[in-house]
Design brief:
Number of domains: 1
Structural class: mainly alpha
Oligomer: single chain
Distance between the termini: 25 Å
Amino acid sequence: MHLKKNICESLVGTIMNTKGKRKDHENARADLEEMGIRLELYVEEAENGKVLPVAATTMSKKEKKELCQFLHSVKFPSGYSSNFARLVSMKELKLNFAMMKSHDCHVLMTSVLPVAIRNVLPVKVCETVMSLCFLFNDIEQKVIDDKLLTDLDRRLH
């Protein structure tokens, strides 16, 4: 559960470009440069310091607002999850991870996030994030059959 909470915070923090939670920073861009991939994302020198080009995973203010409005409006049966409206700051357009419990992250990752990002992010980013969410959902089932494990292995390789 705590692993998923950490992954959820990092994933949503990176997508929403939340200060202190994002994993897209200068060191990550330097790693890309060292590997010789994604030339368009290398750190650029500017007059007032270094500039990070916007990645496909980073949401614009309009996209953040859309996502936050969706999360703010989600309703769950009583006792299923926390009230997401309390966890979303519409003013700052971010999620309050300090108030989120592990189960809230579980619900967000396995049920809500795949639906919430589907029309907000580019298709390739959506497919990747949704695959991660579906993976978590699949491996947390009470019973996992051999066919499911084979399909998961094929998807990952």
